[in-house]
Amino acid sequence: MIMSEQQPGPSPINNEPSKLSAPVETLDKASVERRALLVGAVAVTAGAFSTHAAAAPQPPDLSAALAKFRASIPSHFNRDYVENVVVPFYLTSIYEGERPILPMIDLPLTKQDALPYDLWGLIYEDWKPDPTQGVTVFLEGLENRGADNLRKRIYFSGVTPDLYGPKYQAKAVAFFDKLLDPKHTGKPFMRHYLDYYWDIYWDLHLGVKGEAVPPQVRTIGESFNTVLAYRNPMQQIVYDNYMAVRALLPFLKQWIDARLDDISSGRLANPDKTIAYYWLKNAGDGRYFAKKDVVFECFHNFVALSQWGNSIFGVMSRLNENSGDPAVRAAFQKTMSGDFDNAGGGPYTPIELLVMELFRTISPNGGSLSAIRDARTSFYGGSPFAQFGVPYERHAYVNTPHTATSFDARLWHDPQRFDPGRYKGVPTSAEIDEAKCKQIGLPSCPFKMTTLPVSDGRKTGITNSGFGTVFAVADGKSLPVCDYAGFAPFGFGYRRCPGEQLTIDVFSDFLRKIWRDKIVFRALSQPNPGKVPVGPNAVIDDDIGFFR
Ligand code: HEM
Fold first, then answer.
1. CB distance 159 to ligand 1 below 6 Å
2. Could you give the angle at which helices 236-265 and 189-206 cross, rounded to 10 degrees?
3. The pTM is what?
4. Is 90 exceeded by the pLDDT of residue 7?
5. How far does residue 364's CA lie from ligand 1's centre (Å)?
6. Is 362:354 a contact under the CB 8 Å cutoff?
7. Ligand 1 atom 33, closest CA
């Protein structure tokens, strides 16, 4: 039955009525302008309203259930929204996958179009995949990425760890200085994190911040994140923000396109301090990273970087003096009291180990999502879809879990313990070579090891482990990641997060700032804390502040 296929979004979806979360009195002028724009944008796209969207012809066994479901859809929702967002949302199934023992996901669980169907309308005007408008590596199957995961390597060229110190770190440090300025002491932290966040987002991608980021661009980003956070399309707040994204998408794409021209023409000062610069320089003949793909990646990263919000919230909650985690607080004190930037010849510095353990335990991203298709024939014979040509086939995905894998007792002796030292005993991506694969019992490496030299003047190559994990070698030195299934927060193998090391570097700077300025976090115990959409599936009570 259709109704039994309903997939309520994973917790914590919040059922608050339509409102953006900050109390009105705390909104600055820019925020108010953004709200006004949002309302206008919805009005523009609302278009034809339908009382109840007309039911498509359905076989009798399903139509009654579908009619009942349709009757529950708010009658003022735009009809296209109902057909392309609400209905697919309820006809989507996400299946729980197995915990991998090796950090790889097999290819039949594909990344091609592995996006819950109801979200396509946020990135494509036609509500469905349209590669002619540009693509993101995030939603491409390995077979469509060029030789040896080429698209991923080009993407990675913009975020390799050798770039962080000279090119990006000053931006992150300035961001945290503003965010943790004494004038914000004792205020709910996450709301103003989100207000400043767009500055670091666009500064890193395109070298633009402050007044130079138009209000439309701030609004679409905030709306995008609000949809991801509240998720359930039946909610008014999701509807308003979804339609706002759609109204503003053409403007955003044109704006990004023009900023890319500023980068390539040299009109932008210090263009090499932007991620997009490296994407443009390393695009090769453009077949696997055309300019429209760069535009696409620049805004598709709304999804990627939105996870910094729930991660920051996770770190703060654990360091919170009132109800934090004593083991995390002790590890923070211990690490920061020592020589935290000295790797001592190992692959990771103590502060990196601490951040890695924070990510394993916070696990801000619940799982790696793959699209699955009906097996047209199996040992049971032809599938019903193949045999009878019935039109019921819907969208199905498998979730390879991160939290359960990171806490898998087959992979760690004491998975529950907060122990930054645990990564010293498991392989790095630089160690997973032919010999290691043989030692594990594989006849050879599942992935061929190749290196793509970058074309932007650096002596950096983008290489991979035998498991397909992409990492950099700069000036002859490997800059590996932990290539072990028990460290799951950034996914697995050829499709693992390229932004992992950038994220670890940024969070290391967050911790350095907290330590240097003797910052502590405390619960504010407000009677009615604001609800803030801090990341995908995460709407939190904004009730922690910082003090010195
Ligand atoms: C808290 C921060 C982040 C977390 C927890 C995170 C997590 C992940 C995970 C789990 C995947 C694998 C998804 C899958 O295989 O289905 C992934 C992929 C990806 N991430 Fe991140 N990410 C973060 C930040 C970033 C940042 C900062 C960037 C870019 C600068 C980024 C760009 C990407 C891209 C492009 C992919 C697709 C990789 C591929 O399919 O080859 N992420 N991320």
1. yes
2. 30
3. 0.89
4. no
5. 11
6. no
7. 497
